Amino acid sequence: MKYLIVGLGNIGPEYADTRHNIGFMILDELAKREGAKFSNMRLAYYTEVSYKGRMLCLIKPTTYMNLSGKALNHWMKDLKIPVENVLVLVDDLALPLGTLRLKPQGSAAGHNGLKHIEETLGNNKYARLRFGISDNYPKGRQVDYVLSGFDDDEQPELPALIDRSIDMIKSFATIGTELTMTKFNK
């Protein structure tokens, strides 16, 4: 069984470790733990890790956030992975930091990466792991906020949240969306 795990983010050193790149950060940690290395391939950095007889195909789109659907669609078709085996990792302003939510589908909620995926697939019926980054920014400063790094008081929480995200990815691939939601969503 193959699963496509899509970490959303933007390429380039100026975006590394920003709130908007939490999807990249989670996949980087997962790959590091498994001794896997990303290769720059068509529309994405790509690597594979094996977990309990499943192949987790990890991609970090190189299309920039607003064109994420292009990479997701290419790799879904190339690897012949059905949409029910796709999981998108995304930052979420509507959730406080420390909240992780797996959803079987849902709205893009203003997130440009999810909007493009929805446009490309023609629907919103794909699983996503929403990583809360909270909305602690002044009115009109949303872009600056998501493209900035985590605050000093938030940094200590990140390793445990990334660990939990990795556990949720592995759970999604082994027991599915519904049971993972029951086990992890609070």
TrEMBL record:
The record marks 91 as: Stabilizes the basic form of H active site to accept a proton. The record marks 10 as: Discriminates between blocked and unblocked aminoacyl-tRNA. GO terms for molecular function: peptidyl-tRNA hydrolase activity. The keyword Disulfide bond does not apply. TRNA binds at residues 15, 64, 66, 112. Keywords: Cytoplasm, Hydrolase, RNA-binding, tRNA-binding. It is an enzyme of class 3 (hydrolase). It is found in: Cytoplasm. The active site is at residue 20. Pfam families: Pept_tRNA_hydro. It comes from the Bacteria. InterPro entries: Pept_tRNA_hydro, Pept_tRNA_hydro_CS, Pept_tRNA_hydro_sf. Its EC number is 3.1.1.29. It catalyses: an N-acyl-L-alpha-aminoacyl-tRNA + H2O = an N-acyl-L-amino acid + a tRNA + H(+). Belongs to the PTH family. Monomer. Catalyzes the release of premature peptidyl moieties from peptidyl-tRNA molecules trapped in stalled 50S ribosomal subunits, and thus maintains levels of free tRNAs and 50S ribosomes. This is Peptidyl-tRNA hydrolase.
